[in-house]
Amino acid sequence: MSGRLVVLASGNGTNLQAVIDACASGTIDASVVAAVSDQPTATALEHARAAGVAAIALPRREGEVRVDYDTRLADTVAQHRPDWVVLAGWMRILTMKFLGCFPDQVINIHPALPGEFPGTNAIERAFDAARAHTGVMIHLVPDEGVDNGPVLGTTTVLINPGDSLELLRERMHHAEHELLVTTLSRLCAQEVTA
Ligand code: GRF
């Protein structure tokens, strides 16, 4: 049986697009059944609409506390009965109010290797640190820890002498798309037990 994916994205949605394309080509045995964004104008929602995927804008209400937002988010996501919830550039830290509804089902992409540069601007920080390499990881999100759940896959990305931040960013995004597709295709084929 083919899997059901709900993707949460706050921004451009290039990872969402990579997953939509891989589902369409059969590389991932699943469908993206909904894309949800906390940013109503996110390009990610346009990618979803263009692909005929339910595109749901769920902005935080004024004064709304995190647990209340996460309750609404969990209700919205649950309506789509996901096998996997994919955080693809989702810029809000999720509380257990949400995560407790989807145990062992939430995965996140982080543009750094395990234990390195948790939080925002990881690519910039690796570039500024003048490292020889950085990388990408996909991990489970069991709790409120930031970018530190059990690792499902990693890719190393070289930082070449003379690289600009833009070049590195492009190489990283390419690596993210590949790793996300490979990981989801394994998860949906149940080759990996979460
Ligand atoms: C990616 O670099 C992801 O790792 C990070 O946010 C970015 C999202 O890119 N958490 P996109 O919206 O999928 O293009």
Strand-helix topology:
Layout: E1 3-8, H1 14-25, E2 30-37, H2 43-50, E3 54-57, H3 66-78, E4 84-87, H4 96-99, E5 106-110, H5 122-128, E6 133-140, E7 151-158, H6 165-188
Helix pairs in contact: 1-6
The structure holds 5-O-phosphono-beta-D-ribofuranosylamine (GRF).
Give an overview in words:
By secondary structure, the protein is an alpha/beta fold. 35% of the residues lie in helices and 22% in strands. It is built from six helices and seven strands, in the order βαβαβαβαβαββα. The chain has helices at 14-25, 43-50, 66-78, 96-99, 122-128, 165-188, and strands at 3-8, 30-37, 54-57, 84-87, 106-110, 133-140, 151-158. It has a seven-stranded mixed β-sheet with strand order 3-2-1-4-5-6-7. Helix 1 (14-25) runs parallel beside helix 6. The longest helix has 24 residues, at 165-188. The radius of gyration is 16 Å and the shape is globular. 5-O-phosphono-beta-D-ribofuranosylamine binds at residues 9, 11-15, 44, 88-89, 109-111, 176.
Largest sheet: 7 strands, mixed
Pattern of helices and strands = EHEHEHEHEHEEH
Mass-distribution shape = globular
Ligands in the model, by name, code or SMILES, are:
5-O-phosphono-beta-D-ribofuranosylamine
**Residues in helices, as a percent range:** 25-40%
Mean pLDDT: 95
Question: Could you tell me the number of beta strands?
Answer: 7
Number of helices: 6
Write out the strand line-up for the largest beta sheet, numbering strands in chain order: 3-2-1-4-5-6-7
| Unreliably modeled segments | none
From the alpha carbons, calculate the radius of gyration and give it in angstroms. 16 Å
Structural class: alpha/beta
Instruction: Give the terminus-to-terminus CA distance.
Output: 18 Å
Beta-strand share of residues: 15-25%
